[in-house]
Design brief:
about 425 residues; 20 helices; mainly alpha; globular; single chain
């Protein structure tokens, strides 16, 4: 018996489905439209118009079988309409129009090529590194301006201005929207690798929203990482980044409980870690060493992740080795985040008192002022030192700075556990 028509989702359900489609397909849609229009800002506008059309028509007509292709086709038609109204670019209109199917089930360009092309365009050397990353994260990562602002620990208005200036700079420099030649890759690789890792980071530990992980974002970053390794087989940091992402992704299944709550490292069932991902990650790290050019920041971070991956428990982890690796990382890529992570490792290797000295120095320097990381780590150390009142104050200071509801729940639990009125306090 033939199935009846599929139920047509309405309201918030359509918005959620469109959001899910955009997270997965958005970068490909933007990449295809950018290749078509040679204008990244116009491509974004067209894609947003297509999303608005989806919100109007999908409740009536149902969600198409290939939503990404549908959005691309609608956006292309909008572009053609605009060109027609301008009575210009008639030749381009004819060429593009001939490629559209009447059904609207348009074909996307090859996935990897189009997304990576857009990524390399966004990481053009005419832009500063922060501008490259901000623009690429919105275009390729599909992140909102608020999400990107949280990743960079800056106000949303600052990030909005940064993205607008980046688009204007690309237009002013008349940047050709074509894949750069191999001899141009070198100046862009660093930015491209950083963007891919930031996309992975947003998937691994989302800075906002309600879920502890966005697996599809992390998987997309892994896919991009594999393609970059294929493109750049002699680039050690490409292998280092892939190794790092594989080793971290090996813990995904153990990081979320059955009720959707996050599971901290100490409480994870290590039997659920993906051993194949660990093997592949360690193999990628060996390829870094085989290239004989030394380990860069991503490879050193992969070496840290490797220590966690091979340890049978938190207590049996080689924390002295991890402290040493963080010291190396601090020399290669100094940052307050690296210092804070070194403090955490130091607390496990030598005790919380030594680590607290390092954290207090960061506090005195005003580092990470808009991040919950510093007060939450300080709260942990103070709790271990038997100073619950100060620990509660630090957790209370951290909680409003957390944008992700799942992470906020974890800190709420730690705060309650220190309350003397709480059964465990």
């Amino acid at each position: 018996m033939a199935d009846g028509p599929a139920p047509v989702p309405v309201g918030d359900d359509i918005a959620r489905r469109l959001g899910a489609v955009w997270r997965i397909e958005g970068a490909r849609v933007i990449a295809t439209l950018t290749a078509l229009t040679r204008d990244v800002a116009l491509a974004e506008d067209l894609a947003h118009d297509a999303c608005a059309e989806a919100l109007r028509s999908w409740p009536r007509d149902g969600v198409p079988a290939n939503p990404g292709a549908w959005l691309t086709a609608v956006a292309k038609r909008r572009a053609i309409d605009a060109w027609r109204r301008q009575d210009a670019l008639a030749e381009r209109y004819a060429r593009i129009g001939s490629t559209l199917r009447e059904s609207g089930d348009d074909e996307l360009e090859p996935i990897g090529d189009s997304v990576l092309r857009l990524l390399f365009i966004a990481c053009h050397p005419v832009l500063s590194t922060p501008a490259q990353c901000a623009l690429a994260l919105t275009l390729v990562g599909g992140l909102s301006t608020e999400q990107v602002a949280r990743l960079f620990l800056v106000p949303v208005t600052t990030m909005q201005q940064r993205i607008v200036r980046a688009k204007r700079a690309l237009s002013a420099a008349a940047v050709p929207f074509e894949a750069p030649d191999p001899h141009e890759w070198h100046d862009r690789v660093s930015g491209v690798l950083r963007v891919v890792y930031l996309i992975f980071t947003e998937g691994y530990a989302p800075a906002s929203g309600a879920t502890p992980v966005h697996r599809e974002l992390a998987d997309e970053a892994l896919r991009l990482g594999r393609r970059l390794v294929a493109m750049l087989p002699r680039e050690p940091e490409a292998h280092g980044l892939l190794s790092l992402m594989l080793l971290q992704s090996s813990r995904f299944s153990a990081r979320v409980a059955s009720d959707g709550s996050p599971v901290l490292l100490a409480d994870q069932d290590r039997a659920r870690w993906d051993r194949q991902a660990i093997l592949r990650g360690r193999a990628a790290l060996r390829r870094v060493d085989a290239l004989g050019k030394g380990r860069g920041p991503y490879a050193v971070q992969a070496a840290i992740a490797e220590q966690h991956a091979i340890a049978p428990s938190v207590d049996a982890t080689d924390w002295e080795r991890i402290v040493l690796l963080y010291e190396v990382l601090g020399r290669l890529a100094p940052s307050p985040i690296v210092d804070l992570n070194r403090a955490v490792a130091l607390s496990m290797a030598e005790g919380p008192a030594e680590a607290l000295d390092l954290v207090d120095r960061l506090t005195d320097e005003g580092a990470l002022a808009h991040s919950p990381l510093l007060p939450s780590v300080r709260g942990e150390l103070l709790a271990r030192l038997g100073r619950p009142d100060e620990a509660r104050a630090e957790f209370a200071r951290a909680i409003p700075l957390v944008g992700n509801a799942a992470q906020r729940t974890v800190l709420d639990g730690k705060l309650r556990a220190l309350d003397p009125r709480h059964p465990e306090g």
